[in-house]
Amino acid sequence: MAEGTSDKREQSVRSALAGLVLMLVGALTLGALVYISNSRSEGAAHLMISLGLAGSAMLSAIAQGLVFLGGWMLWKATRRQAR
């Protein structure tokens, strides 16, 4: 029975780490989008033009989804089970 608890704990830790990584990737992507949309540098302007309106909206939606999915995974992995 102790092995079953250990397996659940390992799965919980892996799920929490995966959630944390997803949240981090999503947040960094959103931060990059904010930077390139507000920056006046040539590279950022070129990247914003290359993405276009639809591309930047799609990338933003995916990044927001990653943040919410990662947060849900992290919450689910760290909440206590009813005994």
Residue windows where pLDDT falls under 50 for at least 5 positions: none
Rg over C-alpha atoms, rounded to the nearest angstrom:
18 Å
- What structural class results from the helix and strand content? mainly alpha
Q: How many discrete domains?
A: 1
Content of β-strand: under 5%
Global geometry = rod-shaped
Query: Termini, distance in Å?
Result: 15 Å
Assign a percent range to the helix content.
over 70%
What is the H-and-E element order?
Answer: HH
Overall average residue pLDDT = 90
Query: Helix count, per DSSP?
Result: 2
Main beta sheet strand tally, sense and closure: none
Number of strands: 0
Question: If you had to describe this structure to a student in words, what would you say it looks like?
Answer:
- The chain is mainly alpha-helical and 83 residues long.
- It has one domain.
- The chain is built from 2 helices and no strands.
- The chain has helices at 2-38, 42-78.
- α1 (2-38) runs antiparallel to α2 (42-78).
- It is rod-shaped.
- It starts with a helix and ends in a 5-residue tail after the last helix.
